[in-house]
Fold each of these.
Amino acid sequence: MPRIHLEKGELLRVFGPAALGITKGQVEVLGARYSTGEKIIVHRLRSYTVLALEETILEANLASQGTIQAADQEDPYLEWRKTAEEIIKAKPRIVMVIGQVDSGKSSVSILLSNTALNNGEKPAVIDGDVGQADIGPPGFISLSYPDSKTLWMRTLKPYAMKFIGDIKPQGHMFQIIQSIKQLINTALRDNKTPVIIDTDGWVMDTYATIYKSTLIEEIRPDHLVVIGDQLYEIYNKYSSLGIRIHKIKPPPSKRERSREDRRYLRAEKYKEYLDGGKPVRINMTKTIISGHPLFYGAPVDPELIKEVIGVKPVYATKTPDTLYMVFQEPIRNQRLDLLKNAFGVQRIRYYTAGFEKNAYAALISDTSDQPAIIEKIDFANKIIYLKTKNTINTCIIRLSRYKLTEEYHETPLEI
Ligand SMILES: Nc1ncnc2c1ncn2[C@@H]1O[C@H](COP(=O)(O)OP(=O)(O)OP(=O)(O)O)[C@@H](O)[C@H]1O
Ligand SMILES: [Mg+2]
C-alpha cells in the first residue's frame, strides 16, 4: 500500500477507484476536511483534487484503474475553493452553478455545500439535472438538506422531489423552472441558506441558452458560478441584475463517464427508488392520469366506435384533433379511417392493452412526488395497478416518456 507524504499546501489528483486513509495530518477535498483516522473513498467514476491543510501522511489503496498524480499550484481547485469561500462569506440566499456536461457542476455544488457547513450555515442543494439525477431518481428534480460533509451528491438524501418525466431537459423548460422555483421556496421556508442549484449540462446551443437564461431570470440567484470562458461571455451580462458572476475553470483532467457509465448510474438510482416497491391499486375514475396523450381527451363511448368498425375498444378518448383508443387484442382493421369522419378528427391513434406495462411514472403531490412503476392499467374495470415504495395520497398519476426494463434501462413508451 503506497504511503504518500504531503507538505502543507501540496495538491494531489486522485482517480478512482481508490481509498485514502489519513495516517497523520489533515486534507481537504471539495471543501470537506478529513483528519487522522478518517478515510476517503473515491468511486471508479470519480476523481478529486486533494489539498493538504497541514503536513500529512496518506495510505493509498488503489484498485484496478485507480491512480494518483501530483497536481501543481495551477490546479483549478485552489481557484474553486477561493470562489466558494468568497460566495459563502457573502451569506447568499441562492447560488446557481452552470457549465457543460462533465465540467464539474455537481462537484462545485458539493464544494459550496461543504463550505457552507464549515461556516455553520444550513445549506440546501437542488439537483436540477433530470438526466444525471444524483439525489433523486432520474426524471426528477430534487432537494436535499445536507447536514454533514460529502464528496458525491449521490450520497445525499432527498427532502422533496418533483417529477419531470424525462431524462432530457429539452421540451420541459417551463416545468423544470417551475419545479426548481417550488423547491427553492420549500428550502427558504425551512430556513435553509444558501440554496445551491446544480443544473444540467445542456448549454451548447441556442435553445439551451434561452433555457438557462430564463432560469436565471426567473430564479434571480445572488451568485452565479459559470464554468468555462465561453459560457462566462454569455452569462456575464446578468451582473446588471445585481447577480455576482464567478468564472471558474473545469478540471483539466478527470474521470470521464461513458454513455454506459451514465446508464449504469441511472439504473442504480432507479433500483434504489423502485426495488421492493409494494403493489398499489388506484381507481382511475377518482384519479387524473397524465403524461401520456391517451388520457387528456374527453371520454368516448366504446360502443360508438364498435358501430363504425365492428370492434369495440376497451378505452377511448378524443382531443379536438385525435381519437385515441386501446384495444384488448392487436387489431388489423381497414376501416379505422372511417372513424375520422365519424368523430370529426384528423388523426387516429391506437394501442394494444399492455403497452403501458413497466411505464415509469410518479404519484404527484403538492410537495413531493413519488416514483412508481405501472404494472397494468385495467381499462375495463378502471383500475391502475402500480408499484411504489412510498404510498402517498395523490390525485394525479403522471407517466414518463418511457418504460423500464428488468435491468432498469429506459425504453420508449408508445405515444
Ligand atoms: N478538482 C478536480 N480534479 C479532478 N477531477 C475532478 C475535480 N472535480 C471534479 N472532478 C471530476 O470531474 C468529473 C465531472 O465532475 P461532475 O460530476 O462534478 O461534473 P458535472 O458537470 O456535474 O457532470 P454532469 O454533466 O455529468 O452532471 C467527475 O468525475 C469528478 O469526479
Ligand atoms: Mg452533475
Amino acid sequence: MTDQPCPYCMIVQGQLPTNKIYEDSNFIAALEIRPANPGHVILFPKEHFKSILDMPANLAEEFLGLSARIAKSISKVSEGVTIIHSSGEATSNVLEHLVTNIIPRFSGDNLTFAWNPKQIDEEQMKKLAESISGAIESPEEKTPEVKEIQDEEGPSYEELEKQLPQRNS
Ligand SMILES: [Zn+2]
C-alpha cells in the first residue's frame, strides 16, 4: 500500500464510519457518501484489489454476481439501475481500490454516462469479435463442458422412433 491510507481499506478495518447495506467474508456494500442519486451504493472487495483485472476469476465472478443482486434490490425502490466500474490504466478510474457503483435511476434524473460512438468498419468488427472471443478464459473450478458441434450423421428418425415406447391407443 502507498503512504496515504486507502479509505476503503479503512472502512474494512472499521476506521471509517459507513452506512453498510451488505457484508460477507469478501465484500462490503455501503451507501455512497456523495451519491449521484439517493440510494447510490458502492460495492468493493475487502482485499485491496486495484482492479477487477487483478482479481482471481472466482472472486471476480462473485463480485459481479453480487453487483447484480444488489442492483435487483435497488430496482425495487427506483425506476432503473446503472452499474459502473472501470479497470485499467486508460480509464478514468483514479481510485486505488476497486469499487462498483450501483446507482438507482429515476426518470428525469439528468444523469449522463455518454460517449461519442466511433465508426468501426465491418472487417475490424470481425477481427475484434474473434480476438476478444478467443481470449475469454473458462472459470477456474467449474469448467463447463463445451460440446463441439459436429456434422455427424446420427441415427435416422425412423430408428429413433422404433426406440420409443409403443402407444396402445
Ligand atoms: Zn484499499
